[in-house]
Design the sequence.
């Protein structure tokens, strides 16, 4: 007598959903947690200015993958398709819970840039402003 076997398909639940984006990390700055939306354009301009200065002096690869899911927001260096992922050289740049993202800004004059303000639990009264540049403005 043969045993009865069942194949169960695992359907992707909304909590399993994850999107990834290929972006450039322009830079980041720690700011006070009470930073307002009206202050963010000035902070973003400062980060962009610092990013262009450092890229002239020392070119660095800032191509990243941003993974967004209901459980986390994770940023990792984008090693490209030809290099295999290695945990010893490829580690996460940052990872936060989505509820720690408390402000987003998107510049209508330059739609390829956007920034997010993330409350850093490790540093009291601190947030970090990350500025990203997308190669494709529609994404």
Sequence:
């Amino acid at each position: 007598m043969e045993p009865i076997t069942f194949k169960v398909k695992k359907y992707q639940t909304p909590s399993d959903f994850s999107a990834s984006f290929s972006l450039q990390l322009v830079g980041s700055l720690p700011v006070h947690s009470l930073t307002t939306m009206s202050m963010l354009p000035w902070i973003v301009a400062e980060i962009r200015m610092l990013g262009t200065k450092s890229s002239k002096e020392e070119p660095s690869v800032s191509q990243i993958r941003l993974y967004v899911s209901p459980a986390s927001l994770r940023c990792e260096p984008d090693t490209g398709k030809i290099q295999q992922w290695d945990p010893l050289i490829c580690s996460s740049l940052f990872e936060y819970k989505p509820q720690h993202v408390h402000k987003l800004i998107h510049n209508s004059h330059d739609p390829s840039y956007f920034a997010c303000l993330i409350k850093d639990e490790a540093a009291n009264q601190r947030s970090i402003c990350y500025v990203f540049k997308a190669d494709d403005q529609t994404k």
